[in-house]
Amino acid sequence: MPSDLALYTRSLKKVFDDKVAVQDLSLSVKRGEVFGFLGSNGAGKTTSVKMLLGLVHPTSGDGLMLDAPLGNHRARSKVGFLPEHFRFHDWLNAEEFLKLHADLYRLPHDTAQKKIPELLELVALTPHRKKKLREFSKGMLQRVGLAQALLNDPELVILDEPTSGLDPAGRRLVRDIIRDLKGRGTSVFLNSHLLSEVEITCDRVAFIKNGVVVREEELHKLTSGEISVEIKAKGTTKEIERELREIKEIGNVRVDGDHLSLTASNEDQLPRINRLLVERGVEVFSIKPQKISLEDLFFEIVGTEGGW
Amino acid sequence: MAAFIIAELTFLEAARRKILRMALIVSVVFLIVYGLGFSEIQKDLIRQNSPIILRSEIHNFLTMAGLYVVNFLGIMMTVLTSVDTLSGEVASGTIHTLLAKPVRRWEIVIGKWLGFAIMITLYLILTGIGTLIIAYAVSGYAPPNVFKGLALIWLNCLLLLAVSFFGGSVFSTITNGVMVFGLYGVAFVGGWVEQLGSILKNQSAVEVGVMTSLIMPSEALWKRAAFEMQSPLATALGGITPFSATSVPSPIMIGYAVVYLTIALIMTIRMFSRRDL
Known about the structure:
The structure holds 2 protein chains of 2 kinds. Chain A folds into 2 domains: about 5-220, Rossmann fold; about 225-290, ACT domain (Alpha-Beta Plaits). Chain A is about 35% helix and about 30% strand. Chain A has helices spanning about 45-55, 95-105, 110-120, 140-150, 170-185, 195-200, 220-225, 240-245, 270-280, 295-300; strands at about 5-15, 20-30, 35-40, 60-65, 70, 80, 155-160, 185-190, 205-210, 210-220, 225-235, 250-255, 260-265, 285-290. Chain A has a 6-stranded mixed β-sheet with strand order 6-7-8-3-9-10, with helices on both faces. A 4-stranded antiparallel β-sheet of chain A has the order 2-1-4-5, with helices on one face. Chain A has a 4-stranded antiparallel β-sheet with strand order 12-13-11-14, covered by helices on one side. Chain B has one domain (about 1-275).
């Protein structure tokens, strides 16, 4: 019986010669979830992904991918993978490349015949389908790589830095595809250090530092948590200030001339604050909620070390 | 089976990278040069009205020389084309996309090996049979045990293919090339030491040769092939030429080469399966 986990690892560790690449990778990805895997360069992200796919053998620890032990080749028939550097057999043309990988997925001939033009269309490569990959730009390689990872209608898609070095259109395509996959209930494991991408697409994130998963966070909790609010308003009296302080969802109230700052437990407090100010005759020019961004969190957890 | 897809891919790669075309061109050039040279000498033999025994000796010599080139070129083609097939895919990262599919590593190894084996077979059919046909057309001479001899040359190429695969599963392309040609060189020198030792009746030298054949049986396979295909007269006369055998490797050496090849392939699969990619 399939479990509700697409990926599960327990204390995966990888030591290369004398260098510890991954110290302790323990995480789980639910089915249908878009999971962001974050960390600086050299934190062990790519080695982790390779262990999930059986390309690198863990020194210790174990895990399951779609309920099969890591490295099981059958489980990979339900997995799509886009590797980091988009290095493919470049003497094939786009269509032949997809045909090869459809064959390796054992797709029936007519399914492949139908699927390949669809995917070429999806990644906007139909006009280039007869062109050799050798002549492709980096962005085109990434797109054909994405198409390759979707041939088998995967249950789990693993994307290793899918948007690095891409133009905005390419990034948007990746984002749209991830959203589309999520709509179909596909699990996505997104290895990235482009935080804005992750923030837009992911349900949950894990931070990896020096080969250890240091924190897992649900993004909606992150963004629905405490916010600080900057208000520009004329006529805030001491009495109004005291009144604000008495609301228990509001804290750190400070008034400095026309500038009012406070923290609120959640976004729902914003209209309430606005109403109160307006009712007391305060002229409100702007209310700006400042969410804790993923970037703030990233620096808080991972720090600024690492060369990215 | 995925191995067949990989075999097909290997074939397609050789075609796309123009390796097949180049191999075909050089083979045809070789056959033309060989044919022209042989027929000039044949004209001379007829013009000088040479004695039949000399003619027969020269026909045998030239046929064996042609087959020697077939063996040598076959080995070179085998090693040069296959030396980077595993290590190259690892170094470039193309292996990641292949192995993220429901494909096992042994299927990659066996598939590629099959692909190369088929190409080498076709190459040997072209050059080997071509040489024999030209020799026969020019001189009317056909060596004995042709199929046995060609089969041994074929085995020789498959053996070096397996060795080059083994190196590719462990080392970088360059290191692998150094290893395979190094082993081939050892076998070559060892083969000569054995031949000379046999003529000079130096048993220790012969043993050195046999020892090197155990390290790498490629030269022994050629000597055995040469022994099978040289004319009975040449065998009776003895004497040393690069293309004949005085100290004949025993048939056990053939069995040894088959075992060697099999172990090399099994080790390739083992090493490649364990490797972090």
